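Sanity check. The docking grid for zinc ion depends on where the pocket ends up, so I'm generating a full predicted complex first rather than guessing from homology. Inputs follow.
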Amino acid sequence: MLTIGRRPLPVVGRARMYVCGITPYDTTHLGHARTFVWADVAVRVLRHAGVPVEVCRNVTDVDDVLTSAARRAGSPYDSFAAVQQFYFDRDMAALRVHPVTYEPRAHTYVPQVVALARALLELGHAYERDGAVYFRGSGVRERAGIGAEEAARLMAEFGDHQDDLRKDDPADVAVWRPSAKGEPGWPSEWGEGRPGWHAECAAMAMTTYGPALDLHAGGADLRFPHHAYEAAMAEAVTGVRPFARAWLHVGVVRVDGAKMAKSAGNLVFTTDLLRHHPVGAVRLLLLGHPWAADWDYRPDGLEEAAARLERLHRAAYRTAAYRTGADRPAASAGERAAVRALLDDLDVATALAIAEEEGGQAARTVIAVLALG
Ligand code: ZN
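Predicted complex below; grid placement will be based on this.
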């Protein structure tokens, strides 16, 4: 059985996984790649354990940063997003991230966000103000274990300004907001507007899976406010708790202590790394630190990962006979221990250590499950 965050995640039947996807306005950098490769490993480990997994990874193609990037490029926001999405899909394929089952795009889920806003209003969890619908967010910060000052900083960073005077409470966030001239907009009973970001993911996840899901993945920097409010809105409207049974919040990638981000000007692109190194080495690099930990990227880390990949492959072929199908010998103690490690909070480090030490079938299984071949 898979454990995530030290808690067992038993699954009867299929596992429903939601991966908080990209805003398609720029090329895939290591920060994105790390999140999606770790989510891919969770999928592969579950499937190896015989659990069918459905994966829903959304595309946030209605977003202020996307709108302004498209405007700078002189392109309509939807065609700009479609082109960026094409590059993203190409990068995911190059990184051997398994294709997802569902890929909802925010701009086709506007009626579902309107339905969500309407339900929240009817239940008294939201109110309308000047063409906007605000979700009552008191208690969300406390449940997420975030201090008041940090919450204010993070909410401002992600566009939920606490000093918006139209709100009853600084903790409230927009489910629906009016669109200014030149911004994408859709008709609603509150006037022309567009969905709030957290409401988009809540609507896409609930439309795909119903009121709850098993594993929700995404970058650790999205834990608050994005995921905390997404879950709070879903729970408020369905009454089903928890919305997500487990969270895979993948730590952020830093360069010289600063978070890798377009605004910091320190992006490292996966296409550049893949030009000179095998995909197995790039995946090993991205999996080189536990998923929950933040990671300081160093260029020489890739050389180390490439050398390690060599050692792993040598270990895999240390035993002469490679047999498959009915001829395949029963799993060795080493192979079983490596798989157990992967199921134990995706402990890739231990699985790799066992693979190198044991070699043979144990190494071949770890290489196959982590797609390092
Ligand atoms: Zn999301």
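Relevant for the grid: The CA atoms of residues 152 and 162 lie 6 Å apart.
Also worth noting: The radius of gyration is 22 Å.
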